[in-house]
Write a structure and sequence with these properties.
The complex is a heterodimer of chains A (about 230) and B (about 180). With about 230 residues, chain A is an alpha+beta fold. Chain A has helices at about 1-25, 35-80, 85-95, 120-125, 215-225, 230-234, and strands at about 135-140, 145-150, 155-165, 175-185, 185-195, 195-205, 205-210. Chain A has a seven-stranded antiparallel β-sheet, covered by helices on one side. Chain A is rod-shaped, with a radius of gyration of 41 Å. The chains are: A alpha+beta (about 230), B mainly alpha (about 180).
Chain lengths: ~230, ~180
């Protein structure tokens, strides 16, 4: 026990004395000493290695930071996207159409012709039912009038015209067969002329006209399934 | 990057500063051992390779502590070069010191004695330290002053862990012996 204490004291004293010793110790140097060119070249090479190692370290640090920002950004986008497909679309749109005002959604394969513009997408949403093979041909809005035309590859077409803020129905009944129908609890005026079936009705403060050279069944099914809320948005 | 005086210093700048400040002292130390300009330059170059690996442990360039560290590294590398190039015989002083009797290494006096700590004691310890062979002195300074572990010292000085351990014990015992001789303890 006594020896342990003694050893500890000796160690403490040595530890205390060493820094003083290091401070006081004098090293000689030859001020006239010169180094060979070969040595200086070797040292410069060594310094260059330090430099490149340092540059590499900085590069790794920057890459790590950029990667962290990208991961955080992707995570944030994922949070605000309802599902993986939407997330993928966002990323692809960002890359491909970075400067476009709208996001483009590609349906089907290949060509850009199948792209649906946002206003067309909205027009599609107005119909709860669309006969098979029909696609938006034209969407136009002018003051109080909105018109959507859909057609298929066999040149069959139908159009929906909405006239806002009116309680009047303008019908062409000249040389036409005329009927008053009840569709979806609504009073609908129907005419048929030259193979064109036309339906007229009022909904709130708008008058609607649905006309087309497709079957009556399809046209009436279209009326039954119209989405009036979406129509108001256009 | 390291901080010195509140400024960020690049590794390159630090190494260049160390080289410019201590290259002549290091060359002198190496030359004392090797007696050859080119070998001494080699020792300086190899020392800096070691220093670069331990750059994060050097806080400031222009202090005694750093100078002492660089001199120790250079001196030991010079000894290493000496052993390799000159192919020292087993009877050479350097080797003889390293192969000292294990019993002596582990010697630890049992006799109880007192240590009176005074200015005189401190002075005597410094003298005892100065009288130590560099091989031992360097180990004890690296370990107790620079805070390197035995493993790190072994790596720095290109020697085995066992050798570091032996030299460390032996250095301490030599100091104790010197103090006993002077009648301090």
């Amino acid at each position: 026990m006594k020896n342990e204490i003694r050893d500890k004291i000796i160690d403490n004293v040595i530890d205390e004395v060493i820094p003083e010793y290091v401070e006081e110790v004098k090293y000689e140097e030859n001020n006239d000493a010169t180094f060979s060119k070969e040595h200086e070249d070797k040292m410069n090479k060594l310094f260059n290695q330090v430099k490149s190692r340092e540059t590499k370290k900085i590069r790794i640090r920057i890459i790590t930071r950029v990667a962290a920002v990208v991961v955080i950004g992707a995570f944030a986008m994922l949070l605000f996207s309802p599902n993986m497909l939407a997330f993928r679309m966002k990323i692809l749109n960002l890359i491909i159409h970075g400067e476009d005002e709208y996001s483009w959604v590609e349906f089907g394969e290949g060509s850009g012709e199948s792209r649906i513009k946002p206003e067309e997408q909205k027009a599609v949403e107005c119909f709860g039912y669309i006969p098979e093979g029909f696609e938006i041909d034209e969407v136009s809005t002018h003051e109080k009038v909105m018109r959507i035309i859909l057609k298929n590859s066999s040149d069959k077409k139908f159009s929906l015209k909405v006239l806002n803020n009116t309680m009047k129905l303008g019908m062409d009944t000249e040389n036409a067969n005329y009927e008053v129908l009840k569709i979806d609890e609504k009073e609908v005026f129907y005419t048929e002329k030259d193979g064109i079936y036309t339906y007229y009705w009022l909904e709130e403060t708008s008058s609607y006209t649905l006309a087309g050279n497709i079957s009556r069944e399809d046209l009436e099914k279209l009326i039954e399934n119209l989405n009036y809320e979406k129509i108001k948005e256009i | 990057m390291n901080h010195e005086g509140g400024k960020c210093k690049s590794d390159l700048r630090k190494v260049e500063e160390l080289y410019q400040s201590y290259k002549k002292i290091m060359l002198y130390e190496a030359y004392k051992i090797l007696k050859d300009q080119h070998l001494a330059e080699d020792a300086v170059h190899q020392s800096f390779i070691k220093v670069i690996d331990n750059l994060n442990k050097i806080d400031e360039t222009n202090v005694e502590r750093t100078r002492n560290f660089l001199v120790i590294i250079c001196r030991n590398i010079a000894i290493d070069i000496y052993k390799t190039r000159i192919n020292a015989s087993p009877s050479s002083d350097l080797i003889e010191i390293m192969d000292a009797d294990e019993a002596d290494v582990l010697r630890n006096p049992d006799e109880p004695c007192e240590l009176v700590i005074s200015k005189e004691t401190i002075k005597e310890i410094k003298i005892a330290l100065e009288s130590l062979d560099d091989l031992y002195k360097d180990i004890i300074i690296l370990e107790r002053f620079h805070g390197y572990s035995k493993k790190e010292i072994a790596n720095l000085l290109n020697i085995t862990y066992e050798t570091v351990k032996k030299r460390s014990v032996r250095a301490r015992n030599m100091l104790v012996k010197a103090l006993e001789k002077e009648g301090i303890i």
